[in-house]
Amino acid sequence: MKIYTRTGDEGTTGLFGGRRVRKTNPRVEAYGAVDELNAVLGLAASVLDDEALRDQLLAIQNRLFDVGADIATPPDAKAGDWLHRVPSAWVSELEADIDTLQSGLPALAAFILPGGTSAAAALHMARTACRRAERRLLAATESGEPIGEPVPRYLNRLSDYLFVAARAANASAGVDDVTVARD
Q: How large is the angle between the packed helices 51-72 and 150-172, nearest 10 degrees?
């Protein structure tokens, strides 16, 4: 299979279902930001020592593949059985994971700076990439692109999860969170 098709050389790409749009289309920007988030999560997982947390990130990466496909497939497009729309249950599952991770952490007493371990810093990078993906998704919906209702909620909750996961990565390594210094 060839990697290049040359069909995008003029600045267009195909959505799932066949419609061609500009590569600057808000829908394309949104699923591109999700793809970037997935890559940052791969980086975070590669430097993470905590195996259980790494397994959670791998599961999230797989779900992000489905999130991107959901965004790339307009509701009226004909899609095969390969398409998995984002269910609301994924949001609830993230909330349960957040609660579990947070139960083993000290209470927040100060603002947290991105840092500590390399893994925590990478998870904070993923959190900011997730927030950007969420903003791109909201811009797409505001421009009139129909997107399934659970998708923005999933990305919003995922950024919360990544914040707590960064704290958990530090705690797992025995490193304190880096907090904002107050003079």
A: 160
CA angle, 174 as apex, 56 and 113 as ends, to 5°?
A: 75
pLDDT at 35: 96
- Asked if the structure places residue 65 within a domain, the reply is yes
- Which pLDDT value is given to residue 1? 77
Please check whether residue 139 is in contact with residue 147, taking contact to mean a CB–CB distance below 8 angstroms. Answer: no
Establish if 3 belongs to a structural domain: no
List, as one string, the DSSP characters of 48-113: ---HHHHHHHHHHHHHHHHHHHHHHS-TTS---TT--PPPTHHHHHHHHHHHHHHHTSPPP-SPEE
What is the mean pLDDT for each group of 10 consecutive residues in the chain (183 residues)? Answer: 76 72 85 97 96 96 96 80 88 98 93 95 98 97 93 98 98 94 77
Q: Tell me the two tokens of residue 162.
A: 């990544």
Which candidate, 27, 111, 29, places its Cα nearest to that of 74? 27
7 in a structural domain = no
Domain span at 40: 12-179
Residue 6: per-residue pLDDT? 80
Output the domain CATH number for residue 64: 1.20.1200.10
Number of domains in the chain: 1
Buried residues in 84-93 as b, exposed as e (16+ CB within 10 A): eebeeebbeb
The reply to whether 158 falls in a domain is: yes
